[in-house]
Amino acid sequence: MRFLMTSAAKDLRRRLADWPGLVLWLGIPLFIGTLMTLAFGGDNATPKAHVLLADEDASLVGGFLGGASSGGGGDYVDIERVSTEEGRRRMDEGEASALVILPQGLTDAMLNDTPATITLVTNPAQRILPEIVRVGLDMFVEAVFYLQRILGEPLRAFFGSRPQGQDVFADASVATLATSINQQLRLLESIVLPPVLSLETASGESRSAPGGIDFATLLLPSVLFMSLLFIGRGFSDDLWVERRQGTLRRAVIAPHDAAWFLGGKLAAGAIFMAAVSLAGLLITIPAASVPLWRVPGALVWCTFSGTALISLFLVLQFLASTARGANIVTTMVLFPMMMIGGSFFPFEMMPGWMAAIGRLTPNGQGVTQLKALLLGPVDVTSLTAATAAIGLPAVALFFISARLVRGRFAAGV
Amino acid sequence: MIDVQHLRKLYGELVAVDDATFTARAGQIFGLLGPNGAGKSTTIGCISGLLKPSGGVVKVLGHDVVTDGLAARAALGIVPQELALYEELSATENLRYWGAAYGMGGADLKRRVDEVLEVLGLLDRAREPIKKYSGGMKRRLNFGCGIVHRPKVLLLDEPTVGVDPQSRVRLLDLVREQARAGTCVLYTTHYMEEAQALCDRLAIIDHGKIIAMGTLAELRQMMGERDLLRLTGAFDAARTGAAITPVDGAEVVSVSAEHLILAVEGASRRLPAIFAALAAAGAEIRETTIAQPSLETLFIKLTGRELRE
Questions:
Q1: Is ipTM strictly over 0.85?
Q2: Alpha carbon of A402: minimum distance to chain B alpha carbons (Å)
Q3: What is the pLDDT of residues B268-300, one digit of tens each?
Q4: What CA–CA distance (Å, rounded) separates B274 from B228?
Q5: Measured between CA atoms, how close is A260 to chain B, in angstroms?
């Protein structure tokens, strides 16, 4: 254990002495994050909710909702019509933010002022976009309620006047409905119009997502994990540095299991990850109004999952016979992991299927749980599962690395 | 202290070490002399536990390096051919780290590090990052990292390669000091002058095989006190051999179209007879060199090649 601590201290000293490397590790993710915030978090970009609409009623209400995505709501919501079965299947696969099921007889219930239930199924893996859909649907239901209160009678008469077996209404019925709507509006005019209300839309420097979460804040966990990925690779690359400078050979000859030597690297990496994570989290606190009590948990999580990333990259180093080859191998793993695992683009900006795959990656699980730990709510089962999914393979990979580092790798033959 | 019995190391088809057997004792400097690629570093690798032998047994202080590796390695110190240092750290930090790697700690480690720094002559620059050191200083520190934990067995793999003459003398003194203190030293080199000056006992290795072993006196005896006569020119191998055989005290070591090497007793006295015999065999001689008996001449006698080829 003492050798592990000594090794960790040695690696930390070496890292601190190599300040250009530090600047790169921390600077690149921050730079990319800033660029992305400027590019996507400005005036035009908003994460879009992909909503599946199963209209079992096939009538008026479905038409209204279906049209929502082509109106102003199109900035936030993208609606796709599906059957109920298909919608449920696709939700199970995490392909959309929400599924809205309009039951058969909904229009009749609305006209006749009888109870009906609109079912909303949200994607538990997403946090913000389903909330957009829920709030939108609440507003829609409320609008329908008031519409029914104001125009229920003329609408009932209108729909009741449709000739049997015909899709079109008589001109007289349409005229009667129009007259009724006009009369109701005149009646409301004296109540609604004065005082005159005007709505002005103002756009700040950065747009807020629903729930008061700034886009930049949404990006912070991603950028933090981008840093952890770079650091993880950097600490594992160090094996080749140690091999080149001969210290690896000397270390594995020492009377210790190689696991202690590698454990020192992991411990140094963990301390480094903790320091970087703490800095990142301290930025998040004011930006997203994260309560201070949430920080320790998030810090532990970042350190844990970041250290696991070192373990993953360590074992990748042995897949190549040269430092350059290892660099290619780790790059080929690092960048797809970063892109798909929510460490470049937040999951909320990805297509559902891609986000679903990305959440399975170690960093994807890391980002998902970090967001939950920072912004809540925390699902203990999901957190436990993610801990096991990240931790157990990391332990196995670490011991595989400890076995591989001795012998031919250290000897350089 | 080091007991190597029938050591064999294969890399696929390549035989890097072939049936090597030798023993080195406490307080002794045992030299492993051979050209580059002879199998010296592979032998060190097998003794240190870095490489797994393909056959044979290697023991350090009675501990088998394969079955009782940790105990065997605990007794070892190694000074590798290439520098094995952390450039970003200071000499003190490097020595402390490698001392800790062998279980040292606390006041004992601190005292020993100061002691080694003094012996190495690095005390005044001990806190500087070693990337600022000269090549010779790094070499000395590399040696220091191998002895900081007071090993009972010290493996030195060509520690003076690329070292300036002054640092080389200092390093060789340090090696002698270790042996005087009772350490068993295994020293590999392809510099025969170093081997002659330093080693109590020597093994000459070529193509993975030990081709001669003994004290310097014993090895000289193998040479038979004969000079080595090297001739350059044009030779007919078959006729040259036949022409030299009648010359008393001369023996053909190797012959090719352009080179002839002979082992000759009192070579300078026999030159006229040798030249006459070669002229009769149709040989043309352009250059002649006579070398006194040495490890190098023994190596040439045994292998037909020069040590540095």
A1: no
A2: 14
A3: 888 999 999 999 888 999 999 988 777 777 787
A4: 13
A5: 10
